[in-house]
Amino acid sequence: MNTIFNRKSKLIYIALMSFALLFSCKKILDPDVIDIPTDGNAITSAADVDKALAGAYSFLREVVPDKVFLMGDMRADVFSSYSQVSNVRTETLIATNTSGQLLNNAGGDWRGFYRTIAQCNLILEKISTISVYDEVTRKKHIGEASFIRALSYFYLVRFWGDVPLNLKSVDFSNIPRSPQAEVFKQINADLDVAIANLQVVYNTADKAVRATKGAAWAIKAHVMGWTQDYATCEKLCDSVITRGQYSLVTDTNNLISIFVGKSSEGIFELNFDATLKEVQKNRVYNRTLGRPWYSDGSDGGGGTERFLLSPTRTKLNQMFIPGTRDARRFTWFVKEYYINPNIPNDRIYLGKYRTLQAKGDTSSQNINESNIIITRLPDIMLLRAEALASPAVGRTAEAVTLLNAVRRRAYASLYTGGGNLQDTILLERKKELIGEGQYFFDLVRTRKLATDSKITQADWFQKGAWLLPIDQTIIAKSDFVITQNEYWR
């Protein structure tokens, strides 16, 4: 009897240990796969795939706004708070590029991107198992999942450099970081699949908020620019501009409509729609707007003016020189605050995201319906101008034409020469795309970070000062297979 009992005990012990080991190995990616649908309730039809894709877009919408605004605009020192000295908010010192400030604002946490990637991996695995599938729909679904995965990895590699490369929906193994070159190879492969499978346009309801061929061209153009392949970057930008069926919004009284979403210049953006329960409280919205938009100050949000994040008047005057004409001065920013020098501490509201749900809950701050722009036509026009002006391409006259097309829409003075054309294009990107999470990436790509941010080391690129630290929890869960970025060791 004791022998039988002992044997049973050993079997139970082994089972428990196996269970513990299995789940203790849920290490690096920890994707919490998958909300809608799961592998358990299966993806067995095209309709299921569409729901799963909705989940992937939702996961992307959860992670991108805060991450890209804080680590894109704030880290580039475009926005600051007048509480900077007392440092009463965790965001205020992000631009100083110190480990504590970055980690306290989730700058070391990549799990949201891997959750999105795991969803895309699951979708791509399941598509091949579905026998009844309209071919156009199948190709669209393959293209969308590939696009979202590529975009997620593009954010990962620009933030952290070498990152784990996982193409499985569920992976409990300890995956080491792959070299950036391997990650970029996968990004480009996914974008090529997206370009091959997606159409230029779909229906009006999905305009800009679901992946298209134009969106894939645009993101691949950014990938090529990031890797300094300006010749290919220029060609991809040209495809977006000439074949993508996009056009500039020319009504300067209605430029704010761009951020309501789905405008004629929208290429890819994250949709926020109250009727679809997509409103979200995040720091893009509630840190750039104060009263009367937000009244709740319980978390140090927009209802408390001293926590507001905005460019200083000095920085704005560097972009929009006083006495010059530029329609973006009073459309990107709230005019009443811009022209009033007597506002305490001279806070000037960024107004790009000031569209509100008609009957929003102002006390919870879940009231904003502006879309988060990932890329739009002026971004690609100016990226092409940058590529054309590069020594590798050297077609400066065409670069000036594109630069002036963006300026002309804003009734700004046209560029007629003088100064450094590449620096002029970079400044134009700052003026046009402020608050859209582009500028830090622009400074790294053009190797200008030390000249226009607080990251001023001469060897900032070689030492990896531009990379984010990796959260120590992620490193520990990997049994130290994941190693810290060298600059942060």
Descriptive report:
By secondary structure, the protein is mostly helical. Among the domains are: 28-198 and 457-489, Alpha Horseshoe (Serine Threonine Protein Phosphatase 5, Tetratricopeptide repeat); 274-370, no CATH class. Helix content is 46%, strand content 5%. It contains 18 helices and six strands. It has helices at residues 2-24, 46-74, 99-104, 111-127, 135-160, 180-197, 213-226, 230-243, 257-260, 283-286, 313-319, 335-338, 377-389, 396-409, 421-433, 439-445, 460-463, 472-477, and strands spanning 163-164, 177-178, 266-270, 356-361, 366-368, 372-376. It has a two-stranded antiparallel sheet with strand order 1-2. The chain has a two-stranded antiparallel sheet with strand order 3-6. Helix 2 (46-74) runs parallel beside helix 5 and helix 13 packs antiparallel against helix 14 (396-409). The longest helix has 29 residues, at 46-74. The chain starts with a helix and ends in a 12-residue tail after the last helix. Mean pLDDT is 85; it is low at 1-28 and 31-37.
What would the CATH topology of the domain at 28-198 and 457-489 be? Answer: Serine Threonine Protein Phosphatase 5, Tetratricopeptide repeat
Element pattern in H and E: HHHHHEEHHHHEHHHEEEHHHHHH
- Architecture per CATH nomenclature, i.e. the level-2 architecture of the domain at 28-198 and 457-489: Alpha Horseshoe
Question: In percent terms, what proportion of residues is strand?
Answer: under 5%
Structural class: mainly alpha
Span of the ends, CA to CA: 57 Å
Physical arrangement of strands within the biggest beta sheet: 1-2
Q: Regions with pLDDT < 50 over 5+ consecutive residues?
A: 1-28, 31-37
In DSSP terms (H or I, runs of 4 or more residues), the helix count works out at 18
- What general form does the structure show? globular
Give a quick account of the main beta sheet: strands, pairing sense, barrel closure: 2 strands, antiparallel
- Rg over CA atoms, rounded to whole Å, is 24 Å
CATH class of the domain at 28-198 and 457-489: Mainly Alpha
Overall strand count: 6
In round numbers, the mean pLDDT is 85
Subcellular location: Cell outer membrane
Organism: Pedobacter metabolipauper
Domain SusD-like N-terminal: 43-223
Domain RagB/SusD: 345-446
